[in-house]
Write a structure and sequence with these properties.
The protein has a five-stranded antiparallel sheet. It has a four-stranded antiparallel sheet with strand order 1-4-3-2. The protein has about 170 residues and is α+β, with helices and mostly antiparallel strands. It has three helices and nine strands, in the order ββββααβββββα. The termini are far apart. It folds into two domains: about 5-50, no CATH class; about 65-170. A hairpin with a 2-residue loop joins strand 8 (about 135-140) and strand 9 (about 145-150). It has helices at about 50-75, 90-100, 155-170, and strands spanning about 5, 15-20, 30-35, 40, 105-110, 115-120, 125-130, 135-140, 145-150. The protein is globular.
Length: about 170
């Protein structure tokens, strides 16, 4: 019998892949996961659970997808300070980037006609992408050093993923 379990790897999913079980754990056999719509179908009868970090990532993904849908519904003055609804371009940019980045962000609307993706490490290092209709503004603070850059929308996913990698590898 095929068991369904939720699984979100830290890398984007483009093709099915094979994962080897940790031989030091109770799971000693190889198991194959076919990923479709980010649901893993487990063909191994010895595999019993998904690591906690994948469950947390799946929950964040669900929250983020709902936030992106909710942002489409915001009307004039949604923040009580006269903020306008988001343009189709901003919403499309945010959705495109979200569905192609390598790590789950925290997502927030801003009153600057942009959508913000945030990351923060346990040590306080911080990264944000502010997504506008024509560009991405990046702010990064690592070891109390600040860095700001602007990313044009050409090859945007590649550049955003490079910044995410740089942030998490520092």
């Amino acid at each position: 019998m095929i068991e369904k379990s939720y699984f979100t790897p830290s890398e984007p999913i483009f093709n099915p892949f094979i994962v080897k079980a940790n031989t030091s754990s109770k799971v000693s056999s190889l198991w194959q996961m076919r990923v479709k719509n980010r649901i893993a179908y487990n063909y191994s009868s010895t595999f019993t659970s998904i690591p906690q970090k994948y469950i947390v990532e799946e929950k964040r993904k669900s929250i983020n997808l709902q936030k992106l849908k909710d942002l489409e519904k915001l009307e004039y003055n949604w923040n009580g300070n006269g903020a306008e609804p988001f343009t189709t371009e901003v919403l499309n940019n945010a959705n495109y980037i979200y569905h192609n980045i390598i790590r789950e962000p925290k997502i927030f609307p801003t009153g600057r006609k942009s959508i913000q993706f945030e990351y923060e490490k346990n040590n306080g290092d911080y990264l944000e992408f502010e997504i506008f209709h024509d560009r991405i503004e990046v702010y990064m603070e690592v070891s109390e050093e600040e860095k700001e850059i602007t990313i044009p929308l050409i090859n945007v996913v590649k550049k955003v993923n490079e910044v995410i990698n740089e942030f998490f590898e520092s």
